[in-house]
Amino acid sequence: MINERNADFAPRMAVNAVLKSGGIPIILPNSAPENVTDYIDTFDGVLFLGGFDVDPTFYHEEPHMNLGQTYIPRDRFEIELVKQSLLAGKSIFGICRGMQVINVALGGTLYQDLSEDPAAQMKHSQTSPGNLPTHHVNVESDSRLFTLLGERPYVNSRHHEAVKELAPSLRSVAYADDHVIEAIESIDSDQIMAVQWHPENMYKHYTEMQDLFRDFVKRSEKLATQAPQQPLKIVHKIGEAYPKEYFG
């Protein structure tokens, strides 16, 4: 049985991190995908948070034996929200599941469980308290993330899914030592940054994690004053059968 009460929520720590960075959080309810356009003009940037696994039907796979709980209504809404936000030139920040949703929405795929990835040798689902770091990540020096966190930040880890094939409009900018992708950015613009860990659990004691939220607010302010950038290309349809002209 799907626990719908837990399928959509806004963790207080994420809300507080945005507030502390000078942003004004607007919490959107899960809704039908066709309602996304009603929300677009109410915000300057969108933060995609953690939660249930992304249903593999959205990247044309059958469920793996270790797939966790999914909630298709949230997937549909958030996938549409990614697409419409990009078309409108909004800033996007993804955390954990949020990074995975962004990748799937733009045509990428996931490891439904890290047991599918022969290179994954580290513990990525920590049993220690979530506000404590548990492993390092290696950040590409030419990335926006590098300017915020440096070469080898120490992060927490609470996931069993991971990015497998990157969407063509995204690039990986951080890896764990076992080469699991830990962060992604958009290739040709500053619209997207997403991380696999949970900075909202760490920012109070690890101030560099607050910089991720400050950067999100700063990007949102900057893009809000500009005309929409050339939208990122969405290369294949996910879920519903959208007409070709939908993608521009």
UniProtKB/TrEMBL annotation:
Residue ranges that the Swiss-Prot or TrEMBL entry lists as coiled coil: none
Matches recorded under Pfam families: Peptidase_C26 (PF07722)
Gene Ontology terms describing biological process: polyamine catabolic process
SUPFAM superfamilies xref list: Class I glutamine amidotransferase-like
GO cellular component: cytosol
Molecular function GO labels: gamma-glutamyl-gamma-aminobutyrate hydrolase activity
CDD domains assigned: GATase1_2
Name under which the protein is recorded: Peptidase C26
